[in-house]
Specification:
By secondary structure, the chain is mainly beta. The protein contains 3 helices and 17 strands. 10% of the residues lie in helices and 32% in strands.
C-alpha cells in the first residue's frame, strides 16, 4: 500500500485508498473463467487475512441505482501475481480518468503493462453481465510531472486509460478554472466508487456505492493542487481501498454533474474522522483535454475493419 507522508513528520501517514490485494496464481486464473475478476481468499493490503464482510463500498455508503452515475468505471489490473482495483470516470468514448498511482509501481515507479488492465462501464455491479461493457486498455498515460517524481505526495495524481473498445456511456464534465466556486469551504459534493468497507477487506466489492461529503479546503494538508473533503458533521462515511481514481463531483442545477477532484489518498485504516485528499481537476484540465482530443482524433483516423 502506498504511503504518502504528510509534511508534518509527527502526524500519521496518508495512504492511497486504491489499491492492492495480493493474489495467488490460482486467483489470477479465476479471472479468465468469468471474464473480469474473481478473487477469494486474497490477503488484505496490510498482509493479514480478513474475514469477508458484507458487500458494501465507500464506507457507510449508499447503493447506486442503475444509471445514477453512468460515467463511473471499474478498473481491475493483473501485474504478475498481483491483482488490484481502482475506480475511475469516463470522460470520452475511449478515455477513462483515474489516479496516476493506479498505473505506476509503488517501489520502482515504473509504469505497469496496460495489457493487464480491464475496464468495466455501464453497470453498477461489474460482476453482473447484463448491460455491462468491458474493454481492454491500450495505453496508460499518467500525468508526466507526477510520474517523474520519486515521492507520492506531489501534485498531479491523475492518469488516462485508453480503451481498446469505446464505451457508449456518457462522460462526466470536468471542472475548469472558472469553476473555483465549487472548491469553497462547505461545498456539498459526492464520492462514488467500488472501494472496500475497511482496509483489510479480503475481496473486491462488486456494487457501486456513493456517499455525500463536504469540501473542507482547496489547500489540503499543505499540498498545492489538492482538495480536502470530509463527511461533516457526522464523520461516518468516506473512501477506502479501491476508490482511488474515482471522482469527487458536485451537482449543477441545469448542467448536470461536474467532476472537481480525483481520489488521491486518505489516512490510515480508512478513517472517516479525517479528510480524504483529492487531486484538483481544474488545474489539470488543459493537459487532460489535450490528450483526449489527440486520442479520439487518432482513433477516428484509423480505417474501420
Amino acid at each position: 500500500m502506498t504511503n504518502l507522508l504528510r509534511p508534518d513528520a509527527d502526524e500519521d501517514p496518508v495512504s492511497s485508498p486504491s489499491k492492492k490485494l495480493a493474489a495467488s496464481l490460482a486467483a489470477i486464473a479465476a479471472i479468465a473463467l468469468i471474464g473480469i475478476v474473481s478473487v477469494t481468499g486474497a490477503t488484505g493490503a496490510a498482509g493479514k487475512r480478513a474475514a469477508a464482510p458484507a458487500q458494501a463500498s465507500v464506507i457507510n455508503g449508499k447503493l447506486a441505482t442503475p444509471g445514477q452515475y453512468p460515467w463511473m468505471a471499474f478498473i481491475v489490473a493483473v501485474e504478475g501475481e498481483l491483482v488490484f482495483a481502482c475506480s475511475g470516470s469516463v470522460i470520452a468514448p475511449r478515455v477513462v480518468l483515474t489516479a496516476a498511482h493506479c498505473t505506476l509501481d509503488e517501489e520502482s515507479h515504473a509504469p505497469y503493462d496496460p495489457a493487464g488492465y480491464t475496464v468495466v462501464t455501464g453497470a453498477v455491479n461489474w460482476a453482473d453481465p447484463n448491460g455491462r461493457q468491458t474493454s481492454k486498455v491500450t495505453q496508460l498515460i499518467p500525468y508526466p510531472k507526477y510520474a517523474a517524481k520519486t515521492s507520492r505526495d506531489e501534485f498531479g495524481d491523475a492518469a488516462l486509460l485508453v480503451l481498446e473498445t469505446p464505451t457508449t456511456v456518457p462522460g462526466i464534465a470536468l471542472a475548469k478554472r472558472s469553476d473555483r466556486r465549487y472548491l469553497r469551504l462547505g461545498t456539498r459534493a459526492r464520492l462514488a466508487g467500488w472501494g472496500q468497507t475497511h482496509d483489510e477487506q479480503a475481496e473486491f466489492t462488486e456494487s457501486l456505492y456513493w456517499t455525500k461529503t463536504v469540501v473542507e479546503s482547496d489547500r489540503c494538508e499543505r499540498l498545492w493542487g489538492a482538495i480536502c473533503a470530509v463527511d461533516f458533521p457526522k464523520f461516518k462515511s468516506g473512501g477506502c481501498f479501491g476508490d482511488s481514481g474515482g471522482p469527487l463531483f458536485v451537482g449543477r442545477r441545469e448542467q448536470g454533474w461536474l467532476e472537481i477532484g480525483i481520489v488521491h489518498g486518505g489516512f490510515d485504516h480508512c478513517t472517516t474522522r479525517r479528510p480524504a485528499i483529492y487531486t484538483r481537476v481544474d488545474l489539470l484540465r488543459k493537459w487532460i483535454m489535450g490528450r483526449v482530443r489527440k486520442i479520439e482524433s487518432e482513433a477516428a483516423a484509423v480505417p474501420a475493419g
